[in-house]
Amino acid sequence: MNASVPPTRGEEPTPNQLAMIEHLEIHADAPPQRGIRHLHLSFPSAFVHGDDAVTLVIERMHSWHWLTSEQTDLLAHALHEAVGNAVVHGNRGHIELTVELELWADGQQWDLHVSDQGKGFSVREALRAFRGRRRNLGNGRGLVIMAGSVERLTFHHGGRTVVLGGRRSDALRRG
């Protein structure tokens, strides 16, 4: 996991942060399904449901020894950002729309898929939001937080699904 610190409001993004946004992977296709699906949650586009879903996923992954304590904290923050983005930017807060959260894993790695029903986004739109943070109160910083908190970050379905990925800590101990 990376230890990238996002800029605070009113700060200009660093060249590294801009480069990270410029190199986002946004695919038109569906995300790969790594191993077995261990969890599938579907909930209305509301923060209260998203918070409960994040708590459940993080607690399960930690109880299965897939995350170290440090990874648990970083992933919780990144997953809150992903779910918040799905609710606010993807589904635009429409409670009748759902957010899907899936946990896929094989013996070595895990992937969390967070999907919304919005229109998606492009790298150009992400850069515009990130560079204009001062005017629009922090849009784009969640992408930097997510990228700095997980080993892999990709977007699929044109930006409607984010995949946060990492290595299972129990796999590191085994081999």
Structure in words:
The protein has 175 residues and is of the alpha+beta class. The protein has one domain (15-174): Histidine kinase-like ATPase, C-terminal domain (Heat Shock Protein 90, 2-Layer Sandwich), CATH 3.30.565. The chain is 43% helix and 21% strand. The chain contains 7 helices and 5 strands; from the N terminus they run αβααββαααββα. The protein has helices at 15-22, 47-63, 69-90, 123-131, 133-136, 141-149, 169-174, and strands spanning 36-44, 98-105, 109-115, 152-156, 161-167. A 5-stranded antiparallel beta sheet has the order 1-2-3-5-4. The longest helix has 22 residues, at 69-90. It starts with 14 loop residues before the first helix and ends with a helix.
Short description:
By secondary structure, the chain is an alpha+beta fold. It has 7 helices and 5 strands. Helices cover 43% and strands 21% of the residues.
